[in-house]
Amino acid sequence: MKKIYKFIMLALLAITVFATSGFTTSIKADQKDVTYDRIMKRGYIVLGTSPDYAPYEFQTTSNNKSKDVGMDISVAKDIADDLGVKLKIKNMDFDSLLVALQTGKVDMVLSGMNPSAARRKSVDFSDVYYKGGQSILINKKDAGIYKNKDSFKHKKIAAQTGSIQYNLAKKQIDGAKVSGIQKGADLILALQTNKVEGVVMEKPTAEAYAANNSGIKVIQGGFTLNNDETSTAVAMPKNSPVLRKKINTTISKIKAKNLLPQYLKEAGTYLKGNTVNTSMIHYWKYFAMGVGYTILISILGVIFGFITGTLLALLRLSDNKVLRGLSAAYVEFVRGTPLMVQLMFVYFGLGLFVNLPALTAGIIAVSLNSGAYVAEVIRGGINSVDDGQREAAESLGLNKRDRMRFVIMPQALKNIWPALGNEFISLIKESSIVSIIGVTDLIYQLKIVQSDTYRGVAPIVVAMILYFVMTFSLSRLLKFYERKFNNG
Questions:
Q1: Which N-terminal stretch is annotated as signal sequence (predicted)?
Q2: Are strands 134-139 and 198-202 parallel, antiparallel or unpaired?
């Protein structure tokens, strides 16, 4: 058994090393601009962004449909127009954007991204198209306490995960406890609920939040900044000389025509429109779409998870040592790693070979994860059936397959139904993790509504109620069938 485990782990390691090294080598060996050629061949360019960073990128409602707007989106449209291709936008968490770029999920990233030296090691950057500054948001009631970064020594402060602001806070605020939070709306919520004393944010974004929230105020950061830490540029895959040249040409045109002030003004108009009606009823379509995707992922996750779990359970109970060992290794490996890591491996890791859509990757990851837990539940149920039942079925002349099908499994299912139901209920809640790769489930829509309305708590309350309705309804349905099993 130990040899089998060792073999499985070595195989997984070899696959990972091969995938990573092979991808890197192919890029270095090929001097042609693969990304540009791919864009021109298919007729569209894919933009990766995190739409929670007004006025750079955020979402608004137009004709009852959500759309991405902001300065970066306008720049991206100009780039697509100059290339003569369509623009497709893929939304995801900020700290997943560069991974998406490296694995070919997106062709460029515009998301208020600073071209730092560390990032330049992994991706290429265009010329700088915008220069801002770094500010700190505080609650207005604390205006007399905090003046700049030096006021936050040994205080709690937050910034977006993976951002320049996070690194600045860590390096330049002595003794501060810095929290990394993914979404801008969550940063503001942490500030308003006094979880942190300040939020480090790029100046235009900080001013946008302050303009739409009377309880917070912008103060000068006072950080020591190099050129990269005040600049914003377009990120693209390594070794993209043609694409970089084309994008730089567009940036030069934007600067020559002085279009950025116009784009920022348009973004401000959208921001004001978002705050005209911030009632949750106004955003019911967002939540309805989120519920729809959550239910879809959960149903498919339950079906494929149950099939996978049943197969794994039967393999673990088989007489074949190799199959039993493989099944055991799979179950232990999946149960020993976080679902988020599995999701990112399916979406980004397998993306080196197969370009899976985010929704498909989410369903696969959730199903495979659930299958490992269902396998143990079913295996326990099968083992709980009394040996006398097997012996009686055998004495009646039933073969092994028929014994399992007609005698053991029906009794096992009756025994494990409550535990199986708990797994299905948990699946609804755990499916929320797919939002990190841009699947528009309920959690994703919650974040969008927070960003659009600048309201932190109300969207959370709505999401909690909707999750409760889904899980409670499923719980009632499972109990109904449990009573039928018991009465039968």
A1: 1-19
A2: antiparallel
